[in-house]
Amino acid sequence: MNFNPWHHVEIGKEQPHIVNSVIEISKGSKAKYELDKKTGMLKLDRVLYSSVFYPANYGFIPKTLGEDHDPLDIVVLSQCAIVPMCLVRARVVGVMRMIDHGESDDKIIAVADDDMSVSTINNVNEIRPHFHSELKHFFEEYKALENKTVLVEEFQDADTAKEIILRSITKYQKTFGVAEEIRPVPVIG
């Protein structure tokens, strides 16, 4: 049996508040890597056509299935570029709603839970406003020279992001025949 991080890495016991995320693309990269769903290996999808680079670490949440039929995407804020295929505990703080080729393509926004430089951020509205603009601009522009259109909608809060995560876990379980019950961990405090 081949190891595939999408199917074999646990989402985490504290989901949907803190989730395991698998980084595909480091902050500052111009290369668009993505998980090959069949082999579980990381593949180079393309080098970005535009003169832009990823403004944050980017990856997916294992054992989830988004509306675009891929693992749910996650943007992980950290003071450092995290290497591809690194497993990161990510505290969910919000979501950027997007439409890509007419399909919903949500980007969960999180902070690296083990990075003290972002430890005070608990909700997307606590992230500096300029970063919101950078992230929105990146996703609106990174496919422009490929003649593809992406519509970035508003950023939404952590509660909305957690609802999306729970729906994507249920969709994954129904699609892949997993019989586990979803039991979110209550937030204390």
TrEMBL record:
It catalyses: diphosphate + H2O = 2 phosphate + H(+). It comes from the Bacteria. It is an enzyme of class 3 (hydrolase). Mg(2+) 2 binds at residue 73. It holds the Pfam family Pyrophosphatase. Its EC number is 3.6.1.1. GO terms for cellular component: cytoplasm. InterPro entries: Pyrophosphatase, Pyrophosphatase_sf. Gene3D superfamilies: Inorganic pyrophosphatase. Coiled coil: none annotated. Its main location: cytoplasm. Keywords: Cytoplasm, Hydrolase, Magnesium, Metal-binding. Substrate binds at residues 32, 46, 58, 142. GO terms for molecular function: inorganic diphosphate phosphatase activity; magnesium ion binding. Its cofactor is Mg(2+). GO terms for biological process: phosphate-containing compound metabolic process. Mg(2+) 1 binds at residues 68, 73, 105. It is found in: Cytoplasm. Homohexamer. Belongs to the PPase family. Catalyzes the hydrolysis of inorganic pyrophosphate (PPi) forming two phosphate ions. This is Inorganic pyrophosphatase. It comes from Prosthecochloris marina.
